[in-house]
Every structure is written in structure tokens, then in C-alpha cells.
Description:
Order of helices and strands of chain A: HHHHHHHHHHHHH
Strand order of the largest sheet of chain B: 6-7-8-3-9-10
Number of strands of chain B: 19
Number of helices of chain A: 13
Distance between the termini of chain A: 52 Å
CATH topology of the largest domain in chain A: MetI-like fold
CATH architecture of the largest domain in chain A: Orthogonal Bundle
CATH architecture of the largest domain in chain B: 3-Layer(aba) Sandwich
CATH class of the largest domain in chain B: Alpha Beta
Shape of chain B: globular
Strand content of chain A: under 5%
Oligomer: heterodimer
Structural class of chain B: alpha+beta
Largest sheet of chain A: none
Helix content of chain A: over 70%
Largest interface: A-B, 17 and 26 residues
Low-confidence stretches of chain B: none
Amino acid sequence: MFEQIAYASIIVILGVGACLAYFWGSNWLLDKYLLPDKQTIGSGTVNRDKTRSAIRPWLFLFPALFFLSLFLVYPVFATLYFSFFDSASRNFVGLSNYLWAFRDPAFLQSIYNNLLWLIVVPLIATALGLIIATISDRLWWGNIAKSLIFMPMAISFVGASVIWKFIYDYRGVGVEQIGLLNAIVQGLGGTPQAWISIEGLNSFLLMVVMIWIEVGFAMVILSAALRGVPEETLEAARIDGANDFQIFFTIMIPQIMPTIIVVWTTITIKVLKVFDIILAMTNGQWDTQVLANLMFDWMFRAGDNGRGSMIAVVLMLAVLPIMIWNIRRVNSEQGTR
Amino acid sequence: MADLKINNLYKKYGTVEVLKNINLDIKSGEFIVFVGPSGCGKSTLLRCICGLEEISSGTLEIDGRIVNDVAPSKRGIAMVFQTYALYPHMSVYDNMAYSLKLAKIPHAQIKQMVEEAAEKLHLSAYLDRLPKELSGGQRQRVAIGRSIVRNPKVFLFDEPLSNLDAALRVQMRREIGSLNESLPNTTMIYVTHDQVEAMTMADRIVVLRDGIIEQVGAPMELYDNPQSIFVAGFIGSPKMNFFVGKLASKFNAKTVGVRPEHIKIVKSGGVWNGKIIYTEILGSDSYIYVDVGEENPVIIREEGKARQKIGEEISFSPNNNQYHLFDENDKPIKH
């Protein structure tokens, strides 16, 4: 035990030390060998200064770029490469993995479910977040409610899935039910259901888990944005004859639109990557399969590098446009600042 | 016609009375300025009139109709805010058209009304721009235009010029003045803490202090016959000089007030004597600060360039009869 801690500490110290040594040392070397010579005057010094300031950013960026390339860029291209090969990555098979996918019912099911998630979760999470942010600012217990709603953010997807598994839990006929949802249904005089296996409904029940987590995120960001809306514009609208709904939709929402879009796209990207909830709750059974879980199935359960990689590529291509758009937005907003 | 009548108006926040027993009659077409130091309740009174604040007790009548419980938009008022409060996501045109759209006026008519107002305020070239693309003065004009299109009976201004620089402020002051002339039937109520704005623009000034009205009157009336030391000190720049204690003993009053422009320096034998500690020479006139042994120096205004030097001992007196006497209650004494 102690040995392990000591070992870890040494590694941390060595790592930090190596970073320091690299940044400080490389900077020192640069200054030493390209120091403006006191004797040289005029253009000679200027040129050296220019070279130095051209080199310095690359020097400092190099470690980050190197590790990003090693662990991010290289795997992307490797995955793309593998997706054109067979399950053992030996024989080139062209597009056949992709062609297979579009006839595979499980794959099509996953695409359908992903689309469903993509539409439902960001929409409901953002809308609920906005409504809660608006209402909680007007109630004395609003801050307590906000803290409670924010809390699920701190729970991992797997942890949340376990909690909701209990809520949806079903024990066979005649056995005492322990699920909260079934307790409510029974309390209202209904019969207990095996919720998770009801096809068509179960995907939505899984989405509830993600919405439960993401509403807190949406609420906090939107609440801050709403507080940034100048009070006078709302008063001016009231004098102009707008009612509360008109003020909300024509004055408040447009003013926080950029924030709404950021929240929306952020949740969208998280939704596209959704994996843990499915794995923990149904593992893709009863028509709840999504791409990320399907990829995991093919890659690590079936051991098929080709199909696994192909699904990874499809997933990446789906995320890419939203990512690019999001980054552009952020950049352009900073540009006008 | 838009007479405005305030009767026994109180405004309370919990147990704190912010406005106490306000009574005011404003005639149609008047330009009224509410003036007073920060926290005197002038903005609160304006917000009570426009309906953004509820009136705790008393009545507010516009055109003979009690409007205490009438929504702001139905009172026939329009308001220009200190921060302009333009809708940042709407173009100038949409900012001005917003209230008309809410009132469900046909589009063609809205267009005509907005363009008319824009013409009047020299905004025609900027109708497609967003507020952030305009200068401070232009934004202020959009805020005014947004109010004009509603064709209000009462125009409310809440410190509209305090976000502008000095030169622009003088220009906008003139523009608001001419706006007032072009709308002879529109009552205007203007809130400011700047007594210069009050003096130059108002038909009548309402001086407020700690939630009560100190005095109502035409600018020169307040200048000539202030009804309290507070009004005497608030109206006029530089401030009126006040002499108390033995400096006032000759006048048989608790306080003697003399405006800097009503003091003349004499060779010797003046009413007061003191040493010059500071001079401000502005070209057209000069301000001489004289230490008379009190906390605040006496300010004397001399025309042209002052010849006196710092450290010089001088003697000075008020011009004939141009001084104000106040009793123990800070109320004026006839003399």
C-alpha cells in the first residue's frame, strides 16, 4: 500500500519535473542560442528577434501537439483504415463493412434510436432547463430547487443508470415489487409492468436518465444568461404593452439565444456519444440499441475490428458537423468581443 | 389634453416610506422636471406614474381618469430610460415598431408611423441597424423614437442624458427641448439630478428631498424665492453661500444665504472679511474661494479675469438686497 503511494508520488513528481524541465530548458536554450548579440546592430538583431518569436510558440505547443497526435489523430486514421478491412484486419474488403451495415437490422435500429435520442433529449433537457431557470428566479425557494436539480450532474451515467434501474425495477408476478414506478402504478390501482422491456416505450425511459442529468446543466447555464438580460428591456416591453408570455418569447429568449444554442449543441454531442446508460440498463436489448453500444459489442464482444471500426467512423462523422459548427460559433463570438 | 393629477400619493417598501404625501397638478403640455439628490424618490415617483411601481396609497389621475390599477401600456404614457433599454436583438425599425405590432396595427400603417418618427429624429438612414451599431446619441434618439410612435399623452424621461458625454448632452438637451415644442399637447416629465438640466428645460421644477416635495415652481421662481435652505442650495451653480452664527448676527436671522454672483468685493468695511485660498479662472468669469473661518469657503463670482491673488485679505458684501434670510426651521424670512 505504502509502496504504491510512494511510487505514484515519485511518478507525479517526475512527470511535473519533466514538464518544468522541458518548458524552462527549451526556453533557456532558445534564448541562449538566439540571444540578440550586443555588438550586432540594426537588422541583424531584428531578424533574430523575429526568429525567436516564431519558434517559441511551437516549442511550447510541441508536447500538447505530440500527445494529441499520438492518442487522437493517429487512432482516428487507424480506425478509418481498419474499417475497410475484415474482422482480423488482414484482408482489404473495401466498403463491404459499410454496405453490410445498411442491411443489418441492429445497425438500422441503432441509427433510428440515436436519431430519436438526438431529437428528444436536447429538446426536453434545454426546454426544462429554461423553464426551471425562469421560474426558480421568482420563487423564494428557487435556489434550493436549483441545487437539487443540479445535483444529478455530479452522478456518473452508470451511477444514474443504477438508480433508475431501481426506479423501473420489476419483480415477477406475485413477488413484492421494489420499483418506485411500479409502486406508484400499484398505488393508483394499476398492475406492475416490466418497464425496461416494453419496446417503444423503453427507449424513452432510458432518455429520462440522461434528461435527469442534463437538465441541471442546462438550467445553471441558462439561469446565468437570464440574469444577464437587462431589467430595463423587460420594463420597456411592459410599457410597450407586452404581456408576460410576449416578454418571455420576444424579449428574453432572443437575448439569450446564443447561450441556448451552446447548451443545445453541447447536450447533442453528449447524446450522440451515449453509451453507459444503454450498457448498464438494457445492454441494447428490447430495441434500445444505440451506435456506441453496438460498436462496443462488435469491437470487444464479437472481436470484429472491421465492423467495430466502421461503426466508430459513422459515429464520428455524425458528431463532426455539430462539432465544427459549435467551434465556429464560439470563435465568431470571441471575434466580436 | 393630458392633465396629470397626483393626490396624497404614498409609496412604501415594507415599513419604509419612499414617497410621502405627494400632491401635484400638472397641466397638459407642460414640461415638468423632477430634481433632487440621489435617493430622494424622484425616479420612484416617475415609476409610480408609468406603472412599473405600484402606488401604496393615494391616487394618480391622467386626463381625469384614476389609473392606479391600469396597466402601464394602457395609461397613455411612454418612457425613455437612462440606459435607453433598447432591445439589442432588434433593428432600429423593429425597436420602434414593437409596441405598434403588439397593438395589432396593420403593417403598412406601422411602416408609415415608424418612418415618420425616424424622419423627425434623423434616424431614417439607420432603420436596419442594430442598437450596438449606433452611437450613444443615436441610441438615445431611437429610445425617444420608440416612445414617440406610441403617440403618448405623457412622456416620461428617466435621467436620459446621464450616459452621454458633455457635448452630446447639451445637443440632446436642445433636441428634447424642440421635441417638446413640436408636441404642444404632450405633457413631459423629466427626472434628473442635474440642476442645470432642470433650469434650462423646465416649465416648472419639482424639487424632491427624502420622499417629499420641497418646492414646485418655475425655474426663476426657485432661483429668486427658494422656500427652504435645501432648495436655495440645490438650485444655482456654484452653490449658494450660507453664513451662520456670528457671521449672520447682523441680519437678525439664523442663516444668511448669498449667491456667488451676488457678492461684491469692496476695498474695506464689507460685511465679511476673509483670505483668498483658491481661484478658478474660467475666462468669462472667475470663482474666488475665500476662507472666513468656517468649514466651507465662501465662493465669489467675479466677471472676467480675477485680479486678486491667493493669500490676499479681502472684504465683501452682498449686492443691495440680493441675499436670503432663513429662520431656525430653514424657512425663508421676508426682508
